[in-house]
Every structure is written in structure tokens, then in C-alpha cells.
Specification:
Elements (H helix, E strand, L loop, with lengths): L1 E3 L9 H14 L5 E3 L5 H8 L2 H13 L11 H6 L2
Parallel strand pairs: 1-2
GO molecular function, one term: ATP binding
Protein name: IstB-like ATP-binding domain-containing protein
Pfam families: IstB_IS21 (PF01695)
């Protein structure tokens, strides 16, 4: 299983973009992948960059995905209030 936490904190450069494509391609349909992000799905294309690669990566990520959206305050913020 691959876990990518906080995906999209900064835009990817070309090397990182190609590395991500290779990793997602290797995982696709064979291994579990868990991705967390604070970004809406539509904004992840801009973070990946280069439209054709972003489309290919996001297609592989979302095609077999079970998407869970959480709403509300950050748990860190809630726990910090106590």
C-alpha cells in the first residue's frame, strides 16, 4: 500500500511530475493507494501541472477510487481548544 499524505502542498516540478506518473502507473489496478489532500480534486490538476500528464495521473487515481470527503474544522484545531 502506498500512502501519500497532504498531496498538493506545492506544485510539482517536471522530475517530480514524471516520478508521480511512474508510481501511480505501477500502483494502478495492482496495489492500494491512499491519498489525502486539503485540495479539491479540480485543483490537483494545477498542482501536478502539464495538462496531459495531470490528466493521465488523475484518471488513474480517480478511476478506481473510493472518495471520502471530510468537512468541518481541523482535528488539530479542535484538540488544541481543550
Amino acid at each position: 500500500m502506498l500512502i501519500q499524505d497532504d498531496f498538493g502542498l506545492q506544485p510539482l516540478d517536471n522530475g517530480s511530475r514524471m516520478h508521480l506518473m511512474d508510481i501511480i502507473e505501477d500502483q494502478y489496478g495492482k496495489k492500494s493507494t491512499l491519498i489525502t489532500s486539503q485540495l479539491p480534486v479540480k485543483d490537483r490538476y494545477d498542482v501536478i501541472g502539464k495538462e496531459t500528464i495531470a490528466g493521465a495521473v488523475m484518471n488513474r487515481i480517480t478511476h478506481l477510487a473510493v472518495r471520502i470527503e471530510l468537512h468541518g474544522e481541523s482535528i488539530r484545531k479542535i484538540c488544541g481548544k481543550k
